[in-house]
Design a protein that fits this description.
The protein has about 220 residues and is mainly α. The protein is built from twelve helices and no strands.
């Protein structure tokens, strides 16, 4: 009974924390054709879970590593900008292998940098039991796959959602940067500064995406 309750708690924790991963996967595979998109979603979700299993045992050390969240936050912002630049381009009929593996690379690196603090919650709930961690995270794969697939389809239907998704990544990236150990030690940013930076990045990415999409629409008309 204790094993089952612990496994259930890990599943619930991972489901609550999987939203960012689903969003990154959906944005990363959006420009792929349907077949490669499905493969990318499943592969990205599986990679995300496997990485969480492996990183759980070193999460505390990684979280204390200077520059990790700083670099990761900048990478998340870069992904958001790249997605917005490609947002006016419809999904390709045939994806080049380079674009497919680029999407997988985005997913893997983003998950490494975004999941470290989340993994600490899972590690605490499992009390270091490898099989509990593996079971709980494996059960969450269908949720990530379904969420990513749904988000990518919604973005195809309503491209404005891409701007909102990029804005959310702006908030995530800003939070990661300002909570990096090096940044905290050097500047000790308070909550007000963190909320301000997150808000500015979110708004800036949404406005940039809206402007870029309008620019692409005008060029298509002309």
């Amino acid at each position: 009974m204790h094993f089952l309750l612990t496994a259930l708690s890990i599943v619930l924790i991972d489901l609550l924390l999987a939203g960012d991963n689903a969003l990154v996967i959906a944005l990363a595979v959006r420009s792929l054709p349907p077949r490669e998109r499905r493969i990318g979603i499943v592969g990205g979700a599986a990679a995300a879970v496997l990485l969480r299993v492996g990183l759980t045992f070193v999460a505390a050390q990684l979280l204390a590593t200077p520059y990790l969240q700083l670099v990761g936050g900048l990478f998340i912002l870069w992904i958001a900008v790249r997605v917005l630049i490609d947002c006016s381009t419809p999904p390709e009929e045939v994806a080049a292998p380079k674009r497919f593996w680029q999407a997988i690379w985005y997913i893997v690196v983003a998950d490494i940098t975004m999941s470290v603090d989340n993994i600490l919650a899972i590690a605490g709930a499992s009390q270091g039991n490898f099989w509990l961690i593996l079971f709980g995270l494996a059960v969450s794969i269908p949720f990530i796959v379904l969420s990513s697939n749904l988000l990518s389809r919604l973005m195809d239907r309503w491209p404005a959602l891409i701007c909102i998704g990029a804005g959310i990544l702006g908030k995530v990236g800003g939070e990661m940067i300002l909570t990096d150990r090096f940044v905290v030690r050097m500047w000790a940013p308070g909550d007000l500064l963190r909320w301000t930076v997150e808000g500015v990045l979110t708004a800036a990415l949404i406005v940039f995406g809206w402007w870029w999409m309008r620019r692409g629409a005008r060029e298509t008309v002309t």
